[in-house]
Fold this protein.
Amino acid sequence: MSAFLERYGPVALVTGASSGIGWAFAEELATRGFDLVLAARRTDRLEQLAAKLEAAHGTATQLCESDLSKPDAPAALLAATAGKDIGLVISNAGFNIRGYFETTDAVEMAEMLTVNCHAPMQLAHGFLPRLKARGKGGIVFTSSVEGFIGCPFSTAYSATKALVIGLGEGLFGELAGSGVDVLTLCPGATESEATAKYAEKYAAVPNMQPAREVAQLTLDNITNGPVFVPNAHYKAQFEQLTAMPRAQAVVAMASALKATL
Ligand SMILES: NC(=O)c1ccc[n+]([C@@H]2O[C@H](COP(=O)([O-])OP(=O)(O)OC[C@H]3O[C@@H](n4cnc5c(N)ncnc54)[C@H](OP(=O)(O)O)[C@@H]3O)[C@@H](O)[C@H]2O)c1
């Protein structure tokens, strides 16, 4: 058994496993010998993934239909996995709304807040006692580079991802020395259904990283928290932006991004 599997296995939960980065996490974890709990709304996609992983690696999977825009969905996931020895929680499900803030659909914005913020907070709250009791394991939160600074025309999304960074950093501090590692993943543009949709609607998304590379690098850096940015281009770009006077940075971003809408 690998040291990684021994420390974070035998079972990992991945939310948002039906596509993109979550799908890639599931594939990467299966190659590392994990059994999996896969959660999303589209269970047909989860069934497809489970069959693929079972055939390729003999992975045992539990599938959970879960709509994380419903406030009680995290509690249902916790109950459904009560009997599982989960050592790694990948809280990854999320979505983005782009455009002028005032024309954002209010209901969709509330759903985004529930999926992107309420769900990771409740899942962490529910799983932490289980992980701490084991004395080893990890939590990975998928945030975004957009969580580092208020991003114009992605304002509400960027605010949700800032919360995730705050959640992950705080827990990183609380759990130091507990045997439970916490990493907040901040991807830049990554190949996924989300970016494919945006590339169709808006200007092409530059410097795209394969989802599988994001998953691999994240797992390889799980002890290098509190925050991890897998995309070198976006890491440099956001380091530059956050080093600028804030007003200058957000106004410059707004004028650059307006042209892409
Ligand atoms: N791709 C990027 O460029 C990028 C950059 C930075 C951060 N991120 C973050 O990466 C994470 C994964 O996104 P992705 O890029 O891989 O996009 P994606 O391909 O669209 O995948 C999103 C995943 O989240 C799940 N999800 C969305 N709404 C949900 C809901 N109400 N309940 C349960 N699951 C839900 C989807 O599953 P179902 O639709 O089947 O429910 C899907 O599996 C998100 O948190 C996103 O914000 C992505």
